[in-house]
Structures are given as structure tokens and as C-alpha cells.
């Protein structure tokens, strides 16, 4: 972390823990507040500020959680991408209810999101896939995500096979790979404060907008 990023981190951390999260600063729109916090995490030089825990469950309520990368947010929700043959995709097909948790430890902040997940269109997945480094594109083709692997060499060989297959041409979007959008119904912001008197604001989607309440820490 550079000197400038370190100074920004110190200032942001102090401002957050001392001033906290007032109703006025939070505002009525949780998406706008999330974008401000996310941009501050990036400016502070935090490693992988887009890292997020995604929790899913089977139709019987058996949970799973894993770390992923959030790949975009707008008024419609939070986007992420995966192999459609993965366990998370199977669980989302059975039960589209899911949750996200962002944790920016050095800023003493976290954001929790609950909502329903929907698949992105093929065009949306294609647009994102085209921005990935070529190596990552080939990796998506090479991996049968979460299936058993006899050895690492088998994965390396699969990568080389697809590297040769698409030599001299753009790597197309795999038919088994693409994106999802978590459409939020509830978003909670947590700002760490002294003496564990933390600020917690919860937004709930209602007809016509968002309802905001403050919670005990």
C-alpha cells in the first residue's frame, strides 16, 4: 500500500469510527450509499474491495457459503459470474433466495444484502466475458468447476487444449458459463464505533422505495 493510500485509509477509518454513519449521510438510497462506501474502499487501497461472501442453500435449507468477486452494481442489483454447472448454480436453480456479505475490515465496515437471484441475459454475460483477460477466458473453458480432478496436470492439459483450440481468434463465451444478479430486498450497513456502540442501518424494499431503520448493535 502506497503512502497516499495509507493516509486515505487512516483518514477514512478515523472519520468512520468517530463520526459514524448518520441518517443524513446515509440518505434514502442504499445503492448510492453502497457505491460511496465501495469507492472509498478502493481509494483506501484495500486489497480486493469487491470480494464478497455469497450464501446459497438447497431447497431443503442446507446452506453453503463461498468468497467471490462482485462484478458490478446498479439500481437493479449486484452481479457475479460462475460456471452454470457449479454447486452454487444448482442451489440457485432450486432456491433463488441468497445473501451477500461485504467486509472492509480496515475501515470497520460491512454490508449485508438479502434478495432473489436471477440469471443475466446471454448478452450481459457476453459483454462481461469479453472484458476478462484472455487467460481467465481460457480458464473458464478449461474448468469443470467443482467436479473431481484426477491431478493438476489434467487441468493444465485442458487449458492447453483450449489455448490451441482458440489460437488466433477471440475466445467465445462458454455456453455453460455466465452471470447472475442478486436483486436486493434488504441491505444493511454496519459502521464500527468505539465501545461497540456501532451504527447499523437497514434498508427494506417496499412499494415506492426503500424504508430505512436504525438497529441496536
Descriptive notes:
By secondary structure, the chain is of the alpha+beta class. The chain has 2 domains: 3-128 and 176-215, Roll (Pnp Oxidase, Chain A); 131-172, no CATH class. The protein is 34% helix and 33% strand. It has helices spanning 3-19, 23-26, 30-43, 87-94, 122-129, 134-142, 152-165, and strands spanning 51-57, 63-69, 73-74, 77-83, 97-104, 109-119, 177-191, 199-206, 209-215. Strands 1, 2, 3, 4, 5, 6, 7, 8 and 9 form a 9-stranded antiparallel beta sheet that branches. A hairpin with a 7-residue loop joins strand 7 and strand 8 (199-206). It starts with a helix and ends with a strand. 25% of the residues are buried.
Q: Major sheet, described briefly?
A: 9 strands, antiparallel
Q: Name the shape in a single word.
A: elongated
The CATH topology of the largest domain is given as Pnp Oxidase, Chain A
CATH-defined architecture of the largest domain = Roll
Helix content: 25-40%
- Please tally the β strands and state the result: 9
Radius of gyration: 20 Å
DSSP strand (E) fraction? 25-35%
The low-confidence parts are none
For the residues shown, what is the average pLDDT?
94
Oligomer: single chain
Element pattern in H and E: HHHEEEEHEEHHHEEE
Distance N to C terminus: 31 Å
CATH superfamily of the largest domain: Electron Transport, Fmn-binding Protein, Chain A
The CATH top-level class label of the largest domain? Mainly Beta
Total helix count? 7
Number of domains: 2
Structural class: alpha+beta
Amino acid at each position: 500500500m502506497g503512502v497516499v493510500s495509507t493516509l486515505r485509509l487512516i483518514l477514512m477509518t478515523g472519520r468512520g469510527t468517530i463520526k459514524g454513519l448518520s441518517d443524513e449521510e446515509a440518505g434514502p438510497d442504499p445503492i448510492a450509499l453502497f457505491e460511496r462506501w465501495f469507492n472509498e474502499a478502493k481509494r483506501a487501497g484495500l486489497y480486493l474491495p469487491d470480494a464478497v461472501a455469497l450464501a446459497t442453500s438447497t431447497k431443503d435449507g442446507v446452506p453453503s457459503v463461498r468468497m467471490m468477486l462482485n462484478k458490478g452494481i446498479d439500481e437493479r442489483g449486484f452481479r457475479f459470474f460462475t460456471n452454470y454447472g457449479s454447486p452454487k448454480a444448482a442451489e440457485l436453480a432450486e432456491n433463488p433466495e441468497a445473501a451477500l456479505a461485504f467486509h472492509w475490515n480496515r475501515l470497520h465496515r460491512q454490508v449485508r444484502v438479502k434478495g432473489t437471484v436471477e440469471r443475466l441475459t446471454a448478452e450481459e454475460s457476453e459483454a462481461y466475458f469479453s472484458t476478462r483477460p484472455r487467460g481467465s477466458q481460457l480458464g473458464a473453458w478449461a474448468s469443470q468447476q467443482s467436479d473431481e480432478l484426477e491431478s493438476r496436470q489434467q487441468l493444465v492439459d485442458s487449458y492447453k487444449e483450449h489455448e490451441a483450440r482458440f489460437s488466433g481468434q477471440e475466445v467465445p463465451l462458454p455456453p455453460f458459463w455466465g452471470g447472475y444478479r442478486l436483486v436486493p430486498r434488504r441491505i444493511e450497513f454496519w459502521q464500527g464505533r468505539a465501545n461497540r456502540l456501532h451504527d447499523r442501518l437497514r434498508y427494506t424494499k417496499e412499494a415506492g422505495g426503500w424504508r430505512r431503520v436504525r438497529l441496536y448493535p
